[in-house]
């Protein structure tokens, strides 16, 4: 995002929880607001003229907010309307970035609800595990990632896979990204997991090990990485027996290969 849009998003994000807390029932209001913001984005995707009008900084904030109120006053909840009016009143660099801002606000609302419900860690874990399921099932990934297929059909396919297996928050988040894929299904699900970790004030370390880590080993690794990177870490682990021993750690673009397989590979290179 450009600077103006980043500032706009920061401003609305800071007031988001306050809008959700109005009138109590934070968990329910957060879930409703998140899904309704996604619905608004769907409508804007189908109406470029409206999208541009709501983000047009050449028009006064009051005029843009009046337009949004007239269109949505009786179609969304009070908290959703409050967030939308707040967003519309900001200055966004482009209509596209305004749209992206609404998506991020919708996700944030759902994360706030999950946090209040006490299952944000579970949501993060489910999102990460789903990215692994997609990675291990290329045909499923191809089907849900085919942009030539109608978004509703892609969502229906994945909804059948997810039914009864994840929280309502995870399902809402994943179905939104599958309907409007940004990069690819695997990367987009990982991005959601990273956003959930960020809500908890943590960065993600993706760790591949030759055998499952114990809870104590995970905690010790998290503490060690926190000292190295100067930030609390959320550990996402997966087992890869081909590593033979040790582990491979990925933090952002950095890779630390301490696996037995990696050491043997480097040894062969040095001897060759």
From TrEMBL:
Tell me the Gene3D superfamilies matching this sequence: N-terminal domain of the delta subunit of the F1F0-ATP synthase
Q: How does it sit in the membrane?
A: Peripheral membrane protein
Subcellular location(s): the record lists:
Cell membrane; Membrane
Q: Does the keyword Cell membrane apply?
A: yes
Superkingdom of this entry's organism? Bacteria
Keyword set, alphabetical order: ATP synthesis, Cell membrane, CF(1), Hydrogen ion transport, Hydrolase, Ion transport, Membrane, Transport
Q: What terms describe the molecular function in GO for this protein?
A: hydrolase activity
User: What is the protein's major site of localization?
Assistant: membrane
Pfam families from the UniProt entry = OSCP
Q: What does this protein do?
A: F(1)F(0) ATP synthase produces ATP from ADP in the presence of a proton or sodium gradient. F-type ATPases consist of two structural domains, F(1) containing the extramembraneous catalytic core and F(0) containing the membrane proton channel, linked together by a central stalk and a peripheral stalk. During catalysis, ATP synthesis in the catalytic domain of F(1) is coupled via a rotary mechanism of the central stalk subunits to proton translocation.
* NCBIfam families membership: ATP_synt_delta, PRK13430.1
Which family is this sequence assigned to? Belongs to the ATPase delta chain family.
Protein's recorded name? ATP synthase subunit delta
- This chain's source organism reads Corynebacterium glucuronolyticum ATCC 51866
